[in-house]
Design goal:
Length: 71
């Protein structure tokens, strides 16, 4: 079964963002919320932070459930 999707609907959908996925909550200083929860996600998050804010130092507040493997 096929259907036609209007270009406007596609563009609108591509603009959508998940909450807490590189969500810039404040600009001064930049405060980013992200729910990266595994090594790959954290690596990509730090890469994006470095690319988006290359001249700024990074401070991290990280929370983890007791039952998660910190290593």
């Amino acid at each position: 079964r096929t259907f036609t999707l209007p270009q406007e609907a596609i563009e609108f959908g591509l603009e959508g963002k998940q909450p807490c996925r590189f969500e810039v909550a404040d600009q001064t200083p930049p405060t980013i919320l992200d729910v990266a929860h595994n090594p790959d996600g954290l690596s990509r998050l730090f890469d994006r932070i470095g690319n988006t804010f290359p001249q700024l130092p990074v401070r991290v507040l990280f929370g983890l459930s007791k039952n998660k493997d910190l290593k």
